[in-house]
């Protein structure tokens, strides 16, 4: 019996020890999308600062938000999220009010990047990458270059069945809102219904909804005109120079991915040091060169070669041109209406 | 004194299932009775709104649609699977293990990989199109991928081995003398099959059907990949509530109804099997 109790105690001890290392990590915890920063970024940060930072991955904004809301912002120090989610973290009181004195490299940001609608003056978020959503197409297969959202939503006969659209709620609806000339954050029920009908009609000529492989479909020729984020269109352009990107005349949204320090961070100084480290032109520039996303870091963008910019013309877009577009904002309660509308579109025949 | 050995032997598995399946499931299901917080969290005020919303015509239609697709997949899988199991059971005994091995071979690879293989086959620039064009056909082929049929094909393909195994078990146990006796008494081959073989194998068919139906109705990978996201099944709806709409309470309510449907079917299937084997026991 005594032996028995010892065994139980040893087991308990072992399980506590396991949990302890998982729950109280030694150093800074950063959560980011896979491949969104240099593979050695964490190691070089640790080497430069003597920290023991650890990287965890999230696949979607919603995934990390679910974790943060459940844990009330504990367990993470820095998270990479898109701007509407940064806004939610701020509204929930989970985001740190940034002390710019601890972020000297924030001076590297373009002035326009400090004037973003979701967070003027970077009070709680630091932009990491930004860009547009538009049309990505095979210039060699289309009879004429598209210039309107309607070219995708109501395609000509020879393009019908060769278009794809983004499936994520905000962007799917965004294409409809922009085509109708509405705000990408429209919440009026009547306008939402109009957009729903437009998108149900568009579905009839669609090859598929696709958030992840649309550029590959362009490369293979399976699709000829796709709804795309500029950075992802660049992956197609890298494989086939006949692939082009255009922002329709009705406009685009301005998407911004940000870095947010959590108010409940246990390693706050290290968190500031990390964000500052990422704002270093060399580290920030990695994203532009390697994942082909525009970064709002002036010295980083200035290092890009003319040849590179000629290959990927949308990388050369000016910050002023970007700021002309409306950002996706958190729509609060209307999110439920958005989700329902998207279900109606996807369930329609 | 009763023998406690079965209890001891069973308790680790029971504890495992309770701790890691039943309790987490109940925790998620409990969310169905609370409100979604404005930013996607949970607001702990009791409500039946989420359950009521499941029966809203829009979502009820998605349920029916999913049931239709799952039902079609299950019927096709049973027809194909039963025929294959019948053929395997009719082979010489020593060859049967090898054939069964081939039937379950696809399970050795990842579900996602198998589903992607269909994309490679069916897409407009894919293998089937390439072969057709190679043979000199140069018209537009009908759209094969991203259709409802592609979803059904994918589901049938993935779950067929379950049906083969489920139907093979009763077929292989079937005493060949029974069929012989039936023929000696003047029954045609079809009558023998209908009146002797089929009744004995009903439990296998029921198991196979329910398996395919239950796995298909909750599937979200195949409709997303082979349907191009254009056919919303209930699994995709649940997935969206949890991972994009951040509406966990409604996702939990949907799962609850889905689980109720599955449990109902599994109970029916157990009854059918019990009755079939009970009837047989009475006959002997």
UniProtKB/TrEMBL annotation, chain A:
Its main location: periplasm. GO terms for cellular component: periplasmic space. Gene3D superfamilies: Periplasmic binding protein-like II (3.40.190.10). CDD domains: PBP2_PotD_PotF_like. InterPro entries: SBP (IPR006059), Sperm_putr-bd (IPR001188). Residues 1-25 form the signal peptide. GO terms for molecular function: polyamine binding. Keywords: Periplasm, Signal, Transport. It comes from the Bacteria. One of its GO terms (biological process) is polyamine transport. Pfam families: SBP_bac_8. It is found in: Periplasm. PANTHER family: SPERMIDINE/PUTRESCINE-BINDING PERIPLASMIC PROTEIN, SPERMIDINE_PUTRESCINE-BINDING PERIPLASMIC PROTEIN. This is Spermidine/putrescine ABC transporter substrate-binding protein.
């Amino acid at each position: 019996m005594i032996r028995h109790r010892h065994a139980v105690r040893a087991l308990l001890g072992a399980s506590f020890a396991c949990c302890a290392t998982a729950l109280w990590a030694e150093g800074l915890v950063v959560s980011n999308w896979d491949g969104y920063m240099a593979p050695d970024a964490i190691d070089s940060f640790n080497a430069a600062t003597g920290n023991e930072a650890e990287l965890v991955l999230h696949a979607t904004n919603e995934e990390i938000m679910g974790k943060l809301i459940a844990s009330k912002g504990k367990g993470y120090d820095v998270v990479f999220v898109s701007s509407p989610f940064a806004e939610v973290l701020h509204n929930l009181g989970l985001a740190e009010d940034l002390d710019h004195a601890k972020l000297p490299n924030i001076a590297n940001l373009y002035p326009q990047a400090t004037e973003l609608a979701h967070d003027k003056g970077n009070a709680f978020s630091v932009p990491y990458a930004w860009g547009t959503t538009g049309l990505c197409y095979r210039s060699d297969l289309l009879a004429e270059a598209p210039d309107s959202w309607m070219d995708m939503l109501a395609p000509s006969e020879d393009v019908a069945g060769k278009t794809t659209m983004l499936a994520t709620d905000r962007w799917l609806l965004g294409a409809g809102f922009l085509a109708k000339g509405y705000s990408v954050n429209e919440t009026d029920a009547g306008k939402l219904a109009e957009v729903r009908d437009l998108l149900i009609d568009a579905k009839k000529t669609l090859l598929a909804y696709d958030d992840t492989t649309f550029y590959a479909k362009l490369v293979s020729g399976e699709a000829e005109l796709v709804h795309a984020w500029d950075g992802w269109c660049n992956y197609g352009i890298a494989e086939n120079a006949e692939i082009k990107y255009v922002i329709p005349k009705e406009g685009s949204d301005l998407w911004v991915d940000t870095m947010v320090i959590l108010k409940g961070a246990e390693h706050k100084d290290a968190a500031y040091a990390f964000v500052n480290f990422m704002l270093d032109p060399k580290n920030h520039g990695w994203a532009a060169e390697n994942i082909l996303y525009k970064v709002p870091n002036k010295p980083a963008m200035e290092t890009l070669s003319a040849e590179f910019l000629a290959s990927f013309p949308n990388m050369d877009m000016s910050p002023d041109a970007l700021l002309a577009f409306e950002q996706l904002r958190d729509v609060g309660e209307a999110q439920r209406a958005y989700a329902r509308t998207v279900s109606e579109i996807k369930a329609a025949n | 004194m009763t023998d406690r050995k079965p209890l001891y032997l069973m308790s680790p598995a029971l504890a495992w299932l309770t701790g890691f399946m039943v309790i987490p499931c109940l925790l998620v299901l409990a969310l169905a009775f609370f409100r979604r917080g404005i930013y996607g969290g949970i607001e702990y005020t009791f409500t039946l709104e989420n359950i009521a919303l499941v029966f809203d015509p829009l979502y009820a239609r998605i349920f029916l649609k999913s049931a239709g697709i799952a039902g079609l997949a299950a019927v096709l899988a049973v027809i194909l699977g039963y025929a294959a199991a019948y053929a395997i059971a009719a082979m010489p005994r020593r060859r049967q293990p090898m054939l069964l091995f081939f039937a379950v071979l696809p399970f050795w690879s990842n579900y996602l990989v198998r589903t992607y293989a269909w994309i490679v086959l069916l897409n407009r620039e894919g293998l089937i199109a390439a072969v057709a064009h190679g043979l000199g056909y140069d018209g537009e082929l009908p759209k094969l991928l991203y259709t409802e049929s592609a979803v059904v094909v994918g589901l049938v393909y993935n779950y067929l081995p379950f049906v083969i195994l489920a139907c093979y078990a009763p077929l292989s146990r079937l005493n060949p003398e029974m069929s012989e006796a039936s023929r000696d008494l003047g029954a045609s081959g079809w009558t023998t099959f209908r009146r002797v073989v089929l009744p004995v194998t009903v439990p296998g068919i029921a198991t196979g059907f329910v398996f395919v139906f239950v796995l298909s109705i909750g599937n979200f990978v195949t409709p997303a990949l082979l349907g191009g996201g254009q056919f919303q099944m209930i699994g995709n709806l649940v997935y969206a509530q949890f991972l994009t709409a951040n509406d966990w309470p409604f996702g939990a309510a949907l799962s609850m109804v889905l689980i109720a449907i599955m449990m109902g079917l599994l109970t029916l299937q157990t009854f059918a099997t019990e009755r079939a084997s009970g009837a047989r026991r009475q006959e002997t």
